[in-house]
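Predict the structure of UPF0145 protein KDK92_14800.
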Amino acid sequence: MILVTTDYITGKEFEMLGVAKGSTIRSKHIGKDILSGFKTMVGGELTAYTEMINEARAIATKRMVEEAEGMNADAVINIRYATSAVMQGAAEVMAYGTAVKFK
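Done. Here is the predicted structure for UPF0145 protein KDK92_14800.
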C-alpha cells in the first residue's frame, strides 16, 4: 500500500475509489496525567502525551489502510490527520485520504 500526502503519485494513473479513514481515541492513565501536570509548571516536552499522540496516529493510519484495503485500493493519496481533545487527557486522532486503484 502506497501512502502519500500529495494528490498524485508520479508515473501512476489511477481511479478514485472513495474516502478511507481511521480513528482512535487515546488517553494516559491518571499517574502520567498528574506527572505531566507538574511538568507544565517548569516547562519542557510532555513525553507521555507525545507518546500517546504518536501511538494514536499509528493506530489511526493502520485503520485507514485497512479500510482502503477493503476497497481493494492500491494507494491512499492526499492523506491528512486531524486531532481533537475529547476530554482532559484524552484525544481523538483521525487519519483520512482518498483510496485509489491503479489503472
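Residues 7 and 78 are 5 Å apart (CA to CA).
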